[in-house]
């Protein structure tokens, strides 16, 4: 009771100190009631449907506080104005009405139908499935939103529609503006002699790219040049997107609004139009390319760095390697450019070892990859492994990102620090950490939580100790969940997971807008013309929000294909591992496919009444003592695969003797 009372007192004080006008994002429930979440507040603000003022789910809004509810625990407000719409494009069907054509959106959040003027139908007729853009919504003038048909989707496959809807739900427009596409098309592919002369020329230096086999935009390259003794020069060359992407243009505005490319299993929604991402900026082999580089003089045995240089460059990649090709060279010691690749890999190993010695956490997570047919249907599921070829590239990219952040962190503009997007990762939250520490202790793993450094050491010791043990998966997953989320911010608090005091993103400007911002600030600093961008904090916030949106879309699309794949196995049984527990059931991930589904508590009623024990991450049978805990191996049967809801339902397959209700399922130890 004491904690609850303290929390209420804190909330009451917070409410009394609030201004009358607040900013936040609107979340609308299926019942039609809305809530505005304001950053830094424990309480959200209740918004009745009549007070939305044309705002839709996900919109950034300005809200006026009307009153407190009688219990004093929730504020009620009204939307004053819309600061930014989360999405303006919707998929649905056209329907003829008495006063014209209307668009009925296929959207699980409440919103009105859109009126489509005849001049905005673009050839579509009643019954067509279409993509529509919201144009305006003047409630006082017409009372109804109007839109225009952008694309007809009537003949598209269900998966195509589903993937597009996931992108739209996450707030990503499907098309670039006409102005942006025109600007991109006008950019010349010719690199002038004057431009080359203004840059450091690396075209005669050995240079390669290493990327996934299906990559089309190569945004980083490595060069190697031998110096005196054991010293070499390693160049990390990054596509010079900021050379082509002029601030303030329509092209730049479209890229900023997206802020990231979105990678779904069967497609990529790029941050930049294809002409830029796959042609002008992509560091394709045997072509002169403009780059922004971080160049290091390093000891070939220890990885120690004695000199760093940043600047605009021009390169000519000698060869494009896939990760698989580079890995084969690392494993066999043979192949094209094997001497250089083996040297770079040896140095990357040193960098990696130093990073963990200096406080990085060695978390590893499994990444699902789908094998798709020509229509995008899933044929199989594999797990992406992080091998030495991946780690080679990763370590040199981390080196460049860290070095750029350290350099920019020292720049002052009129005695004030230069503002740019740090990539930060906060220390673990103690309240989230304590239950995990207690849970890990039950497996014999002890944590020292007296400092951030000791927590890191404890995590790395645990991750080393659990290798190959039954609890490995569950402790790795729970450990990751205790971590804060990385984000972009102008305030440097370091990157806890990497163990870096200074860190930013510099190495992927084709697919991440924060990297573009860093490139611009770095160039201005090198030119001695740096300025304070007063909007940088807002830009960081926007980029972090767009990153979260991309992750939502990626998770949703992965789940969609998992469900579609598992439809063929209805009624079949598989081995699985419990990956999550809640009061209403537990989730199981199949060992063979890594596809997660829910075993509902209702389906367990014939065996027992189960209680959720949060501290043990388990469901406990009140009569039988049967325990379902995270990490337990179980057998399940696939009973339902709902594509519309992206939901898999499993059923526990018990080895219990139904006549005697005896089982070899885990039971708690009896107290004596």
Task: List strands and helices in order, with pairings.
Elements: H1 2-16, E1 21-28, E2 34-37, E3 45-47, E4 60-68, E5 75-84, E6 89-97, E7 100-105, E8 114-116, E9 129-136, E10 146-152, H2 158-169, H3 178-186, H4 193-197, E11 200-201, E12 206-211, E13 220-226, E14 231-239, H5 241-244, H6 250-258, E15 262-264, E16 267-269, H7 274-280, E17 288-299, E18 305-316, E19 319-322, H8 323-332, H9 338-357, E20 367-372, E21 378-384, H10 388-409, E22 412-413, E23 416-417, E24 422-424, H11 430-441, H12 452-465, H13 472-482, E25 487-489, H14 513-526, H15 536-566, E26 573-582, E27 585-590, E28 596-600, E29 610-613, E30 618-621, E31 627-629, E32 633-642, E33 647-652
Parallel strand pairs: 3-5, 11-18, 12-19, 28-33
Antiparallel strand pairs: 1-2, 1-4, 2-3, 4-5, 6-7, 6-9, 7-8, 9-10, 12-13, 13-14, 14-17, 15-16, 17-18, 20-21, 22-23, 24-25, 26-27, 26-32, 27-28, 29-30, 30-31, 32-33
Helix pairs in contact: 2-15, 3-6, 9-10, 11-13
């Amino acid at each position: 009771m004491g904690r609850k009372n303290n929390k209420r007192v804190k909330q009451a004080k917070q409410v009394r100190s609030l201004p009358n006008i607040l900013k936040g994002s609107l979340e609308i429930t299926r019942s039609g009631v809305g809530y505005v979440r304001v950053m830094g507040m424990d309480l959200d603000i209740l918004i009745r449907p009549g007070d939305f003022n044309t705002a839709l789910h996900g919109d950034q809004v300005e809200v006026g506080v009307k009153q407190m509810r009688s219990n004093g625990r929730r504020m009620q407000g009204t939307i004053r104005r819309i600061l930014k719409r989360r999405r303006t494009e919707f998929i649905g069907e056209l329907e003829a009405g008495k006063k014209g054509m209307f668009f009925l959106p296929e959207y699980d959040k409440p919103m009105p139908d859109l009126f489509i003027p005849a001049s905005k139908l673009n050839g579509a007729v009643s019954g067509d499935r279409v993509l529509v853009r919201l144009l305006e919504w003047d409630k006082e003038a017409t009372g109804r939103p109007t839109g225009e048909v952008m694309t007809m989707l009537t003949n598209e496959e269900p998966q195509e529609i589903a993937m597009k809807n996931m992108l739209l739900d996450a707030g990503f427009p499907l098309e670039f503006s006409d102005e942006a596409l025109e600007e991109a098309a006008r950019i010349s592919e010719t690199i002038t002699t004057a431009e080359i002369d203004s840059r450091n020329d690396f075209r005669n230096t050995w240079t390669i790219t290493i990327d996934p086999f299906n990559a089309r935009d190569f945004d980083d390259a490595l060069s190697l040049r031998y110096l005196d003794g054991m010293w070499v020069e390693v160049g990390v060359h990054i596509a010079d997107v900021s050379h082509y992407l002029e601030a303030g243009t329509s092209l730049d505005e479209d890229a900023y609004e997206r802020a990231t490319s979105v990678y779904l299993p069967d497609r990529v929604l790029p941050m930049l139009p294809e002409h830029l991402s796959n042609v002008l900026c992509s560091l394709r082999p045997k072509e002169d390319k403009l780059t922004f580089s971080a160049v290091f003089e390093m000891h070939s045995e220890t990885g120690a760095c004695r000199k760093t240089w940043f600047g605009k460059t021009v390169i000519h990649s000698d060869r494009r390697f896939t990760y698989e090709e580079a890995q084969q060279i690392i494993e066999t010691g043979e192949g094209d450019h094997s001497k250089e690749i083996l040297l770079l890999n040896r140095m990357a190993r040193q960098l990696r070892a130093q990073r963990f010695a200096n406080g990085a956490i060695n978390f590893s997570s499994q990444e699902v990859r789908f094998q798709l047919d020509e229509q995008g249907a899933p044929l199989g599921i594999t797990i992406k492994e992080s091998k030495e070829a991946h780690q080679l590239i990763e370590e040199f990219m981390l080196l460049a990102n860290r070095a750029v952040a350290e350099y920019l962190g020292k720049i002052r503009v009129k005695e004030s620090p230069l503002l740019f997007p740090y990539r930060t990762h906060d220390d673990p939250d103690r309240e989230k950490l304590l239950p995990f520490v207690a849970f890990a202790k039950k497996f014999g793993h002890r944590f020292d939580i007296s400092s951030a450094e000791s927590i890191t050491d404890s995590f790395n010791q645990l991750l080393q100790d659990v290798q190959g043990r039954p609890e490995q998966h569950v402790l790795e997953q729970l450990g990751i969940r205790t971590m804060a989320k990385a984000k972009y911010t102008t305030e440097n608090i370091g990157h806890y997971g990497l163990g870096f005091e200074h860190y930013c993103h510099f190495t992927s400007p084709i697919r991440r807008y924060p990297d573009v911002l860093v490139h611009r600030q770095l160039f201005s600093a090198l030119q001695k013309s740096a300025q304070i961008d007063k909007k940088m904090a807002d830009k960081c916030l926007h980029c972090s929000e767009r990153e979260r949106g991309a992750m939502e879309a990626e998770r949703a699309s992965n789940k969609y294909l998992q469900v579609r794949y598992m439809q063929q196995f209805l009624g079949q049984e598989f081995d699985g591992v419990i990956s999550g527990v809640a009061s209403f059931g537990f989730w199981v991930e199949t060992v063979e496919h890594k596809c997660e589904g829910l075993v509902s508590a209702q389906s367990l009623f014939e065996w027992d009444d189960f209680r959720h024990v949060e501290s043990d991450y388990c469901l406990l049978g009140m009569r039988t003592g049967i325990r379902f805990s995270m990490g337990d191996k179980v057998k399940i049967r696939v009973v339902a695969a709902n594509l519309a809801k992206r939901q898999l339902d499993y059923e526990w397959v018990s080895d219990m003797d139904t006549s005697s209700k005896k089982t070899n399922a885990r039971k708690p130890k009896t107290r004596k």
